[in-house]
Amino acid sequence: MKTLAIDIGGTQFRMAVFQGDRMIRRETRATDRAGGREWMMQRILELALEWREEPGYSRCGIGFGGPVLFDRQRVALSTHVGGWSDADLPGELERVLGVPCIMDNDANAGALGEAVFGAGVGCDPLFYMTLSTGIGGGIVWRGEVLRGADSYAGEIGHTVIRPDGPLCLCGARGCFERICSGLWLERDYERPAKELLRDPAFVARYVVDLAAGLKTVVMLLNPERIVIGGGISKAGDRLFEPLRQELKRQMTSWSRARIDVVPALLVDDSVLFGALALTRLIDSTSVPTL
Ligand SMILES: [Zn+2]
Fold first, then answer.
1. Average pLDDT over residues 156-174
2. One domain for residues 148 and 244
3. pTM of the full predicted structure?
4. CA of 18 to the centre of ligand 1 (A)
5. Which residues contact 182 (CB under 8 A, 6 or more apart)?
6. Structural domain tally of the chain?
C-alpha cells in the first residue's frame, strides 16, 4: 500500500510517498508566508496530482503547523500563515485527489512518527517537542496520541517560563516559545540559531530556559523519554549534554523522575513518518467522522 504524507510548516513544507513503511519519494520546498492558504494549496496539489499517476498512492496523512481540531478534522488556525481558520483541509484534498485523508497538528504527528519509527519506540509515555521556528509538543501514551478534551494537549510552547519576559505573538509574556524558539533567538540576538549554538557561553544560558520549560513536562507527565526534533535539535551533544545536566539541577529534589532527553532519530522526517502512522486510523474504529 502506498501513502502520501504531507508536512505543512511555517518555513518549509515537505511531501513524501511511502510504499509500506519505506519512503520512496520526498520533496522539501520553502513556504511563502505571504502567499497564504491559496498559494500553499496550489503547491501541494501540483505535486500530489503529479504523484497520483506515478508512484501513485491510495491514502493521505497530513501534519499541519498549527492547532487542529482532530475530532472535526479541521484546521483551527495557523499562527504562521494566514487564511487557514476553520479550514477543511482533508476534505478539500479528498475531493481533488480521490483518496481518504487524515490530519493532525505537526507536533502530534512528529510525536507519533518518533513513537512508531524513531527515537521513542517502546517509550510510554513519550513526550516529543519540536524546537524550530516555534515550539510545539505532542504526547504519545499507550501507542496513541493524547490530544486532550479539545485537541489542545501538549501545547508546551505557550507555557510561561518568565512571567515578566518579552511579549509573545499569542499576547502573553515570557512564553517558552518566545524565549527559546529559533524565530525569536534570531530576532533577539540578530544571529541565526545555528551560529548561536556554537558558542558554549550562549548554550550555557540557553539551557537554563530550555530546562525550565522541560521541567514542566517531567513534573506533569514523568515521560519515559523526551524526544526533541526541529532544526535546533541538530546541535547534538553540545546542546543535549548541558541540557540534561541543567534539567537534573533544576528538578525538584525529592523527584526521582528519569531525565532521558534525546534528539529525534528521524531528524527532518518525524512529521512525515507520523503522517504515515496516522493513516492507520483510517481503517480503525477510532477514526473521526470524515
Ligand atoms: Zn505565547
1. 96
2. yes
3. 0.95
4. 35
5. 131, 132, 133, 193, 230, 231, 232
6. 2
